[in-house]
Design goal:
The protein contains ten helices and ten strands. The protein is of the alpha/beta class and 278 residues long. The protein has one domain: Aldolase class I (TIM Barrel). Helix 3 (101-109) links the parallel strand 3 and strand 4 (114-116). Helix 2 runs parallel beside helix 3. The radius of gyration is 17 Å and the shape is globular. The protein binds iron/sulfur cluster (SF4). Iron/sulfur cluster (SF4) is lined by residues 17, 19, 21, 24, 26-27, 65-67, 97.
Amino acid sequence: MKEIFLCSICNVSNGGCKEDCTYCTQSYKYKTGVEIYKDKPIGDILQEAEYFADAGALGFCLVTAGRSLTSQKTEYISRAARAVKERFGFHLIACCGSADKESLKELKDAGVDSYNHNLETSRSFFPQVCTTHTWDERYETCENAASVGLMLCVGGIMGVGESWEDREEFYKAVSSLKPFTSPVNFYIPNPALPIQKGVMDRDEAIECIKLAKRYLPDTRLMMAGGREKVFGLEQKEIFDNGIDAVIIGGYLNACGKEPKRDIEMLRGYGLEIAAVCH
Ligand code: SF4
């Protein structure tokens, strides 16, 4: 029986990012009204970790807003990682932007297993959605993470105006990094963001998942943002077409469902909930 891996996200700092990614509610440029804070207290992180561990999540991701992993962030994320790892284990992921090898090595030594850094879209299309940093900087960070022995979690976002050629180019690049996991996000429309696209049609979204699977047959494909918006309560098709993992309990600044309702849904589809991260 097919197993589904449950992953969870903890946004340990949120909003106020100086970059201009046009699909992101955390950029200071767009008045999206997301809560802005820095360095969530470690005690609060542990409470969230406990909630997700009890819900059956095997992965827990510490996410910061902002372009890069500064030395101050490295120290803080390392402290948080040690505290979470010691109490709950978890496959621990960090998502803290562009990073050099030294900082990434520090995270690894603190117990982080994987680094999440998305290429987001194709190299050709990237300048249409971000002008404050380059796609190459993103790719280089992924290479840095792999070089210090971190597993890679690398994916992107669909439905931001890219063509099918861009999607092919994007997945070719992702597959060259051989990620352990690849998150598939679908753009969630927000009137405050410059991208004025609607919710992607579900047939097109399924074609995107099939494309991802074709390029990444050995990677854990994770359905991330947009799952509920695109597929509503009828999600069986995404698992039939290659999704092996889901994020439970909501995304960075968009709500999901209560974890137990997701688990009931998965069991209703005849799927097992993974008990080990392998
Ligand atoms: S760098 Fe990250 S947090 Fe900042 S606007 Fe871009 S996607 Fe959002």
